[in-house]
Amino acid sequence: MKIIACIKQVPDSEAKVKAEDGKVTWGDAPLVINPFDEYAVEGALQQEEALGGTVTVLCIGPESARDALKHALAMGADDAVLVSDAALTELDTVGAARVLAAAVNKIGGADMVLFGRQTLDNGSGLTPAQTARVLGWPMLGLAGQIKVDGGSVTVERVIEEGRQTVNAKLPAVLSVVQSIGEPRYPSFMGIRKASKTTIPVWSLADVNTAAPAPIVSRVELMNPPTQEKEVEMITGESPGEIADKLADKILAEKVL
Amino acid sequence: MKTFVYIDHFKGEVQPASWEAIGVAKSFGTAVALVFGTDLDEITKAAFEYGADEVIVVDDSALTDYRAEPYASTLSALASSSSPDLILFPTTARTRELAAMSAVDLNTGVLTDVAKFEMNGEQLVATRPIYEGKVLEKTVCSGKPVMATIPGRAFPKPERVAGTASAAGTLTKAAAKTDALTTVQGYSASESAVNLGDAGVIVSGGRGVSNNPSLTPPAGMDEKQAEVWRAQQGFALITDLAALLGGAVGASRAAVDGGYVTYAHQVGQTGKVVAPDLYIACGISGAIQHLVGMRNSKVIVAINKDADAPVFKQARYGVVGDLFQIVPALTEALRKKLGK
Ligand SMILES: Cc1cc2nc3c(=O)[nH]c(=O)nc-3n(C[C@H](O)[C@H](O)[C@H](O)COP(=O)(O)OP(=O)(O)OC[C@H]3O[C@@H](n4cnc5c(N)ncnc54)[C@H](O)[C@@H]3O)c2cc1C
Ligand SMILES: Nc1ncnc2c1ncn2[C@@H]1O[C@H](COP(=O)(O)O)[C@@H](O)[C@H]1O
C-alpha cells in the first residue's frame, strides 16, 4: 500500500494572529503542522501498520515547512517531499490542488492520498475534493474510520446527520477527521530518523506543471471588531438568587 | 444578476442556511434554486415559498444518495448551460466537496463561509474569516460564476409565504450526470439530532460536567465508568436547560474525548464553529480551541467553579459556582419567568 499524506504548515493555534499593515502576523509563535493534518498522518500510519507499504508526506510551502514534514517523519512516515517554488506566491485552493495532483503523479503509484479536513489559516476545506477532481479519483470525505480490502477502500464518513459507510475503488482521495484517533507523538527513534532523512525539494518544473493563475485573491485584511463589553459577574447568597438574577439579565438581552 | 442557490438536504431534511442563501440571492436579483435527489416535491414547494424565482429540479435515482462526483458534474453542466453570475451554497460537509469539484470543472473559485457580501462596481467582494476567525479577509473571485458558501445564521432567513408554490415561478426539470465513483453502503443517524449550526441557543458542557463527587454511581463501576456516569447526570441538567430554551447541546473536546457525548456535539477548532444568540458554557475552561468555535455568539454566559477560568474573558455574564447547583436553578428561574 502506497499512501501519501498532504500536510501544510500553519501558525500554532495558541498564536495571537493579527492583521498588521496589510499582512497577517503572529509574533514569535511557532509554525506547526496543521493540526487537522496530524489526523491524516495518523490515518496513513494506521493503514501502513495494518497493510504494510509506505507513507510519504507531501507539502507545498516555503523552506521553513521542512519542520512540519519532519514532525510527520518523526511520527513514523517513511519519506517526505517539499514542493517549493518562487513562482508559488499566491496559491488558491484550485491552484494548490493542481500542484498537489502533479506531485502525486510524479511520486507515482499511490493507492491513497490522505488530507486533513481543513487548514487553520485558510480554513476552506476545499483542497481535498479539488485534488480528487484534478486526479479524476474518487473522493471519500471526512473519514473517521478507514478499511482497505483488496482493491477497494471503505470509510465511515462522519457528518452532522450521522455516520455513513462509503466505498470506492483504489486509488482514492480521502480526508480524515478526529474520530480516526489521537495522532501519535513523535518517538525518540522517530525524531532521530527524521533528523537524518533528506527531504527533496521539487520545483514546479520538477512536477511538470506551471504556476497556476490565482482565481481567488485577497483585497483587504481586517481585525475583527473587539468585544466592547466587560464580563459582568453575577453573585448572590444562594444558587437560587444567582440564577434569578442571571435569568433576568438573559431575558433583558432579548435573545430568547 | 442571476444567482443559483444550491438547496442542500440530507434525506429530505434541508439545511436551513439554504433558505438564507435564497434571501441573499434575491437581494442581488434573480434567485434560481437547484434541488437534486429524489422525492423532491416538498423541497421544491418550500424553495418557492422562501422566494425562489425559479426552481431547477434534478430528480434521478442516480442522485438518491449524495455523492460528490455526480452532484458536481450535474451542477457544472447546469452552470455551463445557463451561465449564472453567482452560485450560493450553505456551508455543509456536502457542499464543501460539491462546490470544490464544480469550481475545478468551471475553472473558477469558491469563497467559503462568507459573513458579508458587498459590491465594488461590478465585482462581488466577500468578507470571510481566516486563522480561525482571528483575522478577516475581503476576497474576490475572478472566475465566473463566482461560488460562495454561507454559514448558518449569518444572513436573515426570508419569510416563508405558504401557497406561493408553482404560482409564482418557473419549474424546470434537468438531467442528472451519473458518473459516481463511490457507493453508499449504510447509514446510522446520530443518536440525537444535533444541529449546532442552526441553533439559536446552545448550552454546552465540558469536563466539569463530570465533577460532582457527591453523586454515588451504581455499584460495580470502575473509575472511568463512574466518571462517564457522573457526566451523564450533568449533561441531563444541561439538556433540560437546552430543551426549555429550544436549543441544542454542545460540548468541549474534553467532554467528547471523555466519552460523555458524541463528536457531533463538539464546538471549537476541530468541531463546529457556531454563532447562536445565546451560548451558555458550563464547566468549560475556555481554551483557545474552544473559544474560536463560539466567540461569535451574541451573548455568552459562563458558569465555572474557577474564577480565573479564561472562559470569563470571552463572556458577557459570568457565574463562579458549581454547575450542578447553578444550572438546575437557572432552568427553574427561566421556566417560571417564561411562564412555561
Ligand atoms: C489541535 C487541537 C484542537 C482542539 N480542538 C478543540 C475543539 O474543537 N473544541 C474544544 O473544546 N477543545 C479543543 N481542543 C482542546 C482544548 O485545548 C482543551 O483541552 C479543551 O477545550 C478543554 O475542555 P474543557 O474546558 O471541558 O476541560 P478543562 O480545561 O479541563 O476545564 C474544565 C473546567 O470545568 C471547571 N469545573 C470543574 N468542575 C466544575 C463544576 N462542578 N462546576 C463548574 N465548573 C467546574 C473547571 O474549573 C475547569 O475550568 C483542541 C486542542 C488541540 C491541541
Ligand atoms: N500547501 C499545502 N501543502 C500540502 N497540503 C495542503 C496544502 N494546503 C492544503 N493542503 C491539504 O488540504 C487540506 C485542506 O486545506 P484547505 O482547503 O486549505 O482548508 C489540508 O488539511 C491539507 O491536508
Attribute tags:
heterodimer; A: 256 residues; alpha/beta; Rossmann fold; nine-stranded mixed beta sheet; two-stranded antiparallel sheet; 6 helices; globular; B: 340 residues; 2 domains; 9 helices; elongated; binds flavin-adenine dinucleotide; binds adenosine monophosphate
Structure, explained:
- Chain A is α/β, with parallel strands linked by helices.
- Chain A has a single domain (2-202), classed as HUPs (Rossmann fold).
- Chain A is built from 6 helices and 15 strands.
- Chain A has helices at residues 35-51, 66-75, 93-107, 127-135, 188-196, 239-252; strands at 2-6, 9-11, 18-20, 23-25, 31-33, 54-60, 79-83, 112-115, 139-149, 152-159, 162-169, 172-176, 201-202, 216-222, 232-233.
- In chain A, strands 11-10-9-12-8-1-6-7-13 form a 9-stranded mixed beta sheet, sandwiched between helices. Chain A has a two-stranded antiparallel ribbon with strand order 2-5.
- In chain A, a hairpin with a 2-residue loop joins strand 10 and strand 11.
- In chain A, helix 3 crosses helix 4 (127-135).
- The longest helix of chain A is centred in the N-terminal third of the chain and has 17 residues, at 35-51.
- The radius of gyration of chain A is 22 Å and the shape is globular.
- With 340 residues, chain B is of the alpha/beta class.
- Chain B has 2 domains: 2-173, Rossmann fold (3-Layer(aba) Sandwich); 196-338, TPP-binding domain (Rossmann fold).
- In chain B, 30% of the residues lie in helices and 27% in strands.
- Chain B has a 7-stranded parallel beta sheet, with helices on both faces. In chain B, strands 15-14-16-17-18 form a 5-stranded parallel beta sheet.
- Chain B is elongated, with a radius of gyration of 22 Å.
- Chain B starts with a strand and ends with a helix.
- Chains A and B meet through helix 3, helix 4, strand 9, strand 10 and strand 11 of A and helix 3, helix 4, strand 7, strand 9 and strand 10 of B.
- The complex binds flavin-adenine dinucleotide (FAD) and adenosine monophosphate.
